[in-house]
Design goal:
The protein contains 7 helices and 12 strands. The chain is α+β, with helices and mostly antiparallel strands and 258 residues long. The strands form 2 sheets. The chain has a 7-stranded mixed β-sheet, with helices on both faces. The N and C termini lie far apart (43 Å). The structure holds biotin (BTN).
Length: 258
């Protein structure tokens, strides 16, 4: 990957002042977790061509064919310590969808809280991790996006897709990444200003599981319900047996028949 090419396309205030490119690492999120925060850490981007222990949510593995996709993490070390971090999954997903759409013209859907969906399959995922030391110290946004991968192993074949599989086109990963970093920068700026309602509206527009039956876990039990609404703080309202339940975190499964 050509890092200068990416940098030349950036219009950012915070993100991408420093970009680190690694041929191989266990996980770009791990790399940033272990990194000592320095004065110029805010907005640092770490890209890996290959992750040997790429991680997804719930300790799942993140599979990505080396050299074909985007696997990277962005570090944010905001000085404003009372940021609404719980809205990050929603607004990050929206920011990435906007960027991908802007460059490729392909409409990307969202699945609560932060999956990126194309043709009903997973195009990308986001792993957000925060660290605290008396106050918020690091926000690590790890992103895996399937770009030019043309086939997937049996294990994930039925649930994963890529931009390439959508239309047989290969996309320039550096240009795509620069669009994403520009979009994340705008989102970060809006988060600091507490002015992110547009992202919530955009997320809702992209979500195609409203009014559908979903399965979700709540207080350790599994429920079925109809996904109704997204609140301003990023929770999903699900109507289960006539009662509205507010889900703060977790994973949902969309019932194909519903
Ligand atoms: C998910 O959908 O479960 C989240 C997947 C996040 C994968 C990315 S790839 C770059 C970064 N490094 C990791 O180890 N994970 C994230």
């Amino acid at each position: 990957m050509n890092i200068d090419k990416i940098k030349n396309l950036l219009k950012t205030k915070y993100i991408g002042k420093a970009i680190l490119f690694l041929e191989q690492i266990d996980s770009t999120n791990n790399y940033l977790k272990n990194l000592e925060v320095a004065e110029n850490s805010d907005g640092l981007v770490v890209i890996a061509e290959n992750q040997t222990k790429g991680r997804g949510r719930y300790d799942r593995k993140w599979y990505s064919q080396p050299g074909k996709n985007l696997t990277f993490s962005v570090l944010m070390t905001p000085t404003k310590t009372n940021l609404e971090t719980k809205i990050l999954p929603i607004i990050t997903a929206s920011a990435i969808c906007k960027a991908v759409e802007n460059y490729t013209g392909i409409h990307i859907h969202t699945k609560w809280p932060n999956d990126l969906i194309l043709n009903g399959k997973k195009l990308g995922g986001i792993l957000i991790e925060t660290t605290f030391e008396t106050h918020l110290k690091k926000i690590i946004i790890g992103i895996g996006l399937n770009v030019n991968q043309s086939s997937f192993d049996n294990e994930v074949k039925l649930i994963a897709t890529s931009l390439y599989l959508n239309n047989g086109r290969e996309y320039d990963r550096e240009v795509l990444l620069s669009h994403i970093l520009n979009s994340l920068d705008e989102m970060y700026h809006k988060l600091i200003l507490n002015d992110y309602l547009d992202y919530i509206e955009d997320w809702k527009m992209r979500c195609n599981h409203f009014k559908k039956t979903i399965i979700f876990e709540y207080n350790g039990e599994s429920y079925k319900g109809i996904a109704r609404e997204l609140t301003k703080d990023g929770c999903l309202i699900v109507n289960s047996d006539g009662k509205d339940i507010k889900i703060f975190s977790g994973e949902i499964f969309i019932n194909k028949e519903g």
